[in-house]
C-alpha cells in the first residue's frame, strides 16, 4: 500500500464525523504537566550548592539561601541567592489543564519579562530572569506561581517556585554576576 492509499483510507474513515477544536484551552502534550512542575520543585529542594555562594543554615525545608560573603555584617547588602518552592500538597489539587497552561505561559515568555493571567478559576504569574532596580537594590528573578481564584479574589492557596538573586548594594553585581547566576540557575533547575 502506498502513501496515497493510506491517506485516502484515513479520509474515508473520518467522513461524516465532526471535530471541534477549542483554541481557548492550552495545547496539552503527551507530557504530564503536573509531573514537570513537581520535578522543578524537586530539583530546587535537592540543590545544595551555588558557585561563589555559601549555603546559609535554613529553618524552612522549602527555602534555601546562599550568601556570597557568609560573615558579611550587613545582611541586606550581602549578595544572595534564594531558592524557594512551596505547597507541593496544593499542586496535587491543581487540574492538569491549569498546570499545562502555566508551563505554556512560562515557555513562551522572553527573558527579562513577567506576566499574570487568569485561567479556569486560577491565577498564574510568571517571570523569567526578570531584572529590577530600585535605588541601590538590584534583583534578578525567575518564578512561576499558581493561585486558586482570580487576581482580585485570590486566596493564599498557591504553589510556586522562585529563583531570586539580589543585593541591596548594586556594586556587588559586578560584571552582571547576579544576573548571570540567575540565568544559569534557571537553565539548570527549570529545564523548560
General description of the model:
It is a single chain. The chain has five helices and seven strands. By secondary structure, the chain is of the alpha+beta class. It has one domain. A seven-stranded antiparallel sheet has the order 1-2-3-7-6-5-4. Strand 5 and strand 6 form a beta hairpin. The longest helix is centred in the N-terminal third of the chain and has 14 residues. The protein is elongated. It starts with a helix and ends with a helix. 28% of the residues are buried. The model has no long low-confidence stretch (mean pLDDT 80).
In brief, what are we looking at here?
This protein has helices spanning 3-14, 33-46, 88-93, 96-108, 177-189, and strands at residues 54-55, 63-67, 80-86, 113-119, 122-134, 137-148, 158-167. The chain has 192 residues and is an alpha+beta fold. It has one domain (30-189).
* Total of helices: 5
Oligomer: single chain
The ordered string of helix (H) and strand (E) elements is: HHEEEHHEEEEH
Largest sheet: 7 strands, antiparallel
Strand order of the largest sheet: 1-2-3-7-6-5-4
- Shape, per Cα inertia axes: elongated
Strand content: 25-35%
The total number of structural domains is: 1
